[in-house]
Amino acid sequence: MKLKLIVNGYESPDDYKLLRTTLSTVASLRKTAVLRFTSERLVMISTPKSSGSSNSTVLHGDTGQIWCTIPRDLFKLYTVTSARELNTITMEYNCDSLVTVFKRYDRAMSQGCSSDMTIKLQSMPEWNTGGGMGNNGSNGRVNPVCALGITFEEILHGHVGNGVDYEAGNVADSMKVGYVSDKTVLHSFRIPVKLLFKAQDTRIQEPMINYANLMMCRLPPYTGEFGAGFSNFIKRVERYTSIRHIRLSGSRKEGDSTNEDPQLKITVNELDWHLELCWNGPLDAIVQQEIPNEAEETSQRAPVDDSMTVEDSEGNKTNDDVDVELVDVSAMVERAERENSLVNEVFMRSKDWKVCHKLYGAFEEVVLAISHNESCVLHCSLDRGSRVDDGTSGEPKERGQIIYYIARSKPL
């Protein structure tokens, strides 16, 4: 197998920002993650026990997952060759180690360096002697340990004396400082990675979402009029460091009219105190195809309710006041039940919500989905413009995206 990537943050700052944001977001969730390279794209995955035997399609307990898609045209060079289908190469890596290397590259660029960052998969036989660093994989085999070799240049600036005799007194003060000497340093790193067998890779599957009771809304763009306000709404919870769980509620008006904005509310009810945070600004509701069927069922129930009211009023004419009062109470209860069915709520960990705040500020389009009493999903995407240099002018590039699946922290 062969893997070689080249990225240049100086020439393509927006694409590099997407890659950096993805790496740092994955690192904020767990110590290790998975890189899955295919012919078309790179997928970064953060799942619990990513190379273990448990199937990851079901979210339960403390099993939040991040699935990130990085298109191949984000890289200056993208070469992946493997015997597997779609040239798949899958590996597990330490998040902090890779993020540290990218921070060094950031520092180099801040000094004015425009060097390429080259990433290669390197065989390391000396790391695999005596069992190596890999854990046992399928059929008792040991996962081979390789290295991601990363190289880039950095320009170091320094000052040296100019050797001029200052006693003459005819040398300008600016020249007495000396001249600048630039030195180019080649940085080289090796990040250990554990290659995953095909059976292990197959078990890592993207979670499924229950669409039976799902509310989705498009959040205000971070750079838009309401972006700063919504960012403060998300960040408000971070003030309370002792909070472990929050209750996220999304509600929409009866009938799911697109003219009515859905509402979001965060409730904290622990440590003997109660707090409610509400977002009163605009939200763009995303209506599913199944909703008209629910409206049909509601309209079919209405005539039955009306006929029952007429029968009751005719059967007890001597107690009109009592009958009307009972009918009003019944209607109020039924209406409350219908309204409750339009409220989606889920308990989630406070630290998961903090990750949401970080993602919201990094992407142009963010969609929030709440599956009642099951999970919450944050879908972030970034428009990368159009292809103008490869003969397909006007065709949009594949979007980079991060999908954050958040399992409920406890039942309602």
From TrEMBL:
One of its GO terms (biological process) is nucleotide-excision repair. GO terms for cellular component: checkpoint clamp complex; site of double-strand break. It holds the Pfam family Hus1. InterPro entries: HUS1/Mec3. Its main location: nucleus. Keywords: Nucleus. Residues 293-319 are annotated as: Disordered. The keyword Nucleus applies. It is found in: Nucleus. The keyword Nucleus applies. PANTHER family: CHECKPOINT PROTEIN, MITOTIC AND DNA DAMAGE CHECKPOINT PROTEIN HUS1. This is Checkpoint protein. It comes from Torulaspora globosa.
